[in-house]
Amino acid sequence: MYKIAVLPGDGTGPEVVREGLKVLDAVGESAGFKLDYTHYDLGGERYKRTGEVLPDSVVDELRQFDAIYLGAIGHPDVKPGILEKGLLLRLRFELDQYINLRPVKLYPGVETPLKDKGPEHVDFVVVRENTEGQYAGAGGFLRKGTPDEIAVQESICTRKGVDRCLRYAYQYAMKRNKDKKLTLCGKTNVLTYAFDLWERAFHEIGEKEFPEITRDYAHVDATVMWMVKNPEWFDVIVTENMFGDIITDLGAMIQGGMGIAAGGNINPEGVSMFEPIGGSAPKYTGQNVVNPLAAIGAAAMMLDTIGEADAAARVEKSIMTVCESHIKSLAAGRMGYNTQEVGDLVVKNL
Amino acid sequence: MYKIAVLPGDGTGPEVVREGLKVLDAVGESAGFKLDYTHYDLGGERYKRTGEVLPDSVVDELRQFDAIYLGAIGHPDVKPGILEKGLLLRLRFELDQYINLRPVKLYPGVETPLKDKGPEHVDFVVVRENTEGQYAGAGGFLRKGTPDEIAVQESICTRKGVDRCLRYAYQYAMKRNKDKKLTLCGKTNVLTYAFDLWERAFHEIGEKEFPEITRDYAHVDATVMWMVKNPEWFDVIVTENMFGDIITDLGAMIQGGMGIAAGGNINPEGVSMFEPIGGSAPKYTGQNVVNPLAAIGAAAMMLDTIGEADAAARVEKSIMTVCESHIKSLAAGRMGYNTQEVGDLVVKNL
Ligand SMILES: CC(C)[C@H](C(=O)O)[C@@H](O)C(=O)O
Ligand SMILES: CC(C)[C@H](C(=O)O)[C@@H](O)C(=O)O
C-alpha cells in the first residue's frame, strides 16, 4: 500500500490525472499492490476563492506521503508567477526535491520536429539540479524605478547541492547502462564562478567514485545545437537549474511535445513529485480532448521511484504501444480518441 | 574609403576571412567605395608566442576604425576561456558593443534539421544584450575548495543597458517592417529581479515610443520550443546576454549551422565587430575545405552597418544564389567546391 498525494491542479490537470490514476490502479491490481490517494484541491481556483496558494499545514501533510502526483498549475485569471512560485517551486524547495529528472525519449510512432531522426537517435536523460542557481531567488534592486536602476539576480551554487546532484546523475548513468556517459552542460568560459565549482566537483566525483563513466562537457549553447542536430550523442546530461529548464523544454519538443513529456522532482531521501510537463491548457478544459500520456508517463516514473520498477516498465511499454499502434497524433483533439479512451487504451495494453 | 581592422584569428579563420575580403573588394569596386584593411595577428598563435592576448594599445587603435572584421578565436593548445574572455568578450565590453545581432534566416537550398520547415518559416532576428547579465563577470567564492564551498554568479542588469538594447530592438523591428512584432524572451516567473526590470522597460518604451510594434513575451524555455516547432511565430526577439547566447546558437542550427550563421557585435555610436559565429575548426586548418559563407555574411552585415546597405544586400543576394544554385552542402568538405571557389562564386554572382 502506497500513500499518494494527488494535486490535480488547474485546467485540464484533473482530466489527465484521472487517466493516470486509472492506469495506476489497473497496474497495481495486476501486480499486487495498492495505492491510496488523498486529493488536494490546490491551484488557481482555490487561490481565487481563498487567496491561499499553499497552506503551511498542507506542506507538512505532504511530507507524510510516499509520493506526490501533480496535474498542472496555471490559471488564466491568476497573474503568472503566483502559482508557479507559490506551489511548484515552493514544494521543490521545501521538500528539498533536488533533482529534476527528465527522460527525453522518442517513442516509435511519435512525430518529432526533427528531420531524419527516429527513436534510435532520441533517447537521453537530463538530470537538472532543482533547488539552487538563479532559482534560489536571491537578488534585488538598487534605485528601482529610476533611470539609474540596477537589478541583480544571483545564481547560488553550493558544493553540497552540486555534489548530491552529480552523484545522482552518475548513479543514473551507471544504472541506465547505455553509453555510460555523463555530459556536464555548462558555460565554463563565462560563468567562471558557478561552473568552476561544477566542473571541479564533476571531475573529482567522477574520477574517484565513478571511473567507469565517461565524462563529457558541452557548453549550454553547443548543447542546444547538438540536441537538434545530433541528439544521439547524449546519454545522461547533468546541469544547473536554469540551463536545465531551457534544455528540458527543448528536449520535450524533440521527443514529441507536451503531450508526452513527463518529469520528476525527486528527493531520493524524501518525498518526490511527478508531473506531466505541459501546462494546464485552459482552453481545452472539460472537453475530454487533451492527451493524458504525459500524465500517465509521470505516473510510471512515480512507480519506478517508489520501488515498483516492473509495474513502471509495464506502463511505459503500454504507452509505447498506444503511441505506435493506436493514436494518430499526440495533439489535443487530433488523437483519434478522447482523453478517457486513451487512458483506457493504456490500461488495455498493460 | 572605410578603414577596417581585420582579425583573422585562429584555425580556419584566416581562410574564411580571405574570402570575405575578396567579396568586399569586389562589391566595393563595383559600387564605388574602397576598404582599407589593417591586419592584426591576434589569437592563439600570438598568445602562445608572446603570452599576450590583446595589448591595451591595440584596443585603443581599434577604436579608430570604421569596423572590425573577425575570423575565429580558439586554439587547441590554449585553455578554453583565455582567448574568449581576453579577446572576444574584452572587445565587446571595452568597445561597448552592447548589441549582439543575429539574423536567423533559412536561405533557399539550405538544409535545416527541422522537418516541414522552409525559408518561409525561418526568418527572424535575435537582438541580444551584449554587455551585461551574467557576462558582467561579477561573483565569487566562499570557502573555496571545502565541502562548504559556495559559488555566486551574479547577473547585473541596468536600466540604462536594458533601455538602449530595447530601443535598438524596437527600431530594428520598425525598419525590418515584417510583422512589426517584438518578442521579449525572459523568465519573469523565476528571475523576478532581472526580468522585472526588463519587463517594465519593455512595456514603457514600447508603449510610449513604438506604439506600432506589437509586444509579445515568451519564457526562455518556451522560446526554444517554439524556435523548433513554430519558428514562423518570431519576427524580432530581444533578450538578455546569457539567454541570447543559447537561443542564437539554436537559431544558427535551424538556419543551417555554423557554415552560414553570422553575427554582429554592435555599438551603434562606436566601432562594431562582425564575425562568422562558428569556431576556428582547427582540424580543417589549411585544407581549403571550410565554408566561407558565414564569414562572407558577416562582411555583408558589416557593410550594412557602415552605411553601404545596397552593397550589403547585393552580397546577401549572391550568397543566396550560391546556396540555392551551386553548392551541394554547407558542410566542410562536402560543398562540391573548395573554400576559395565558394568565395569566387559569391563574387561572380554579385
Ligand atoms: C513553471 C516554472 C516555474 C517551471 C520552472 O521554471 O522550473 C517550469 O518551467 C518547469 O520546468 O518545471
Ligand atoms: C565564445 C563565447 C564567450 C561567446 C559567448 O558566450 O558570447 C560565444 O558563444 C558567442 O555567442 O559569441
Main traits of this protein?
homodimer, 350 residues, alpha/beta, Isopropylmalate Dehydrogenase, 2 domains, 10-stranded mixed β-sheet, two-stranded antiparallel sheet, 11 helices, globular, binds 3-isopropylmalic acid, oxidoreductase (chains A, B)
Summarize the structure.
Two copies of one chain form a homodimer. Chain A has 350 residues and is α/β, with parallel strands linked by helices. Chain A has helices at 13-31, 44-50, 56-62, 82-94, 159-176, 194-209, 220-229, 241-254, 293-306, 309-325, 339-348, and strands spanning 2-9, 35-39, 67-72, 99-105, 123-129, 139-142, 150-158, 181-186, 214-219, 236-239, 262-266, 272-276.
Task: Describe what this molecule looks like in 3D.
2 copies of one chain form a homodimer. By secondary structure, chain A is an alpha/beta fold. Chain A folds into 2 domains: 1-98 and 262-350, Isopropylmalate Dehydrogenase; 112-255, Isopropylmalate Dehydrogenase (3-Layer(aba) Sandwich). Helix content of chain A is 41%, strand content 21%. Chain A has helices at residues 13-31, 44-50, 56-62, 82-94, 159-176, 194-209, 220-229, 241-254, 293-306, 309-325, 339-348; strands at residues 2-9, 35-39, 67-72, 99-105, 123-129, 139-142, 150-158, 181-186, 214-219, 236-239, 262-266, 272-276. The first copy, chain A, has a 10-stranded mixed β-sheet with strand order 2-1-3-12-11-4-5-10-8-9, with helices on both faces. The first copy, chain A, has a two-stranded antiparallel ribbon with strand order 6-7. Chain A is globular and about 50 Å long. The model of chain A has no long low-confidence stretch (mean pLDDT 97). The interface between A and B is large, with 61 and 61 residues. Strand 7 of chain A pairs antiparallel with strand 7 of chain B. One 3-isopropylmalic acid sits between chains B (84, 88-89, 245) and A (189-190, 221).
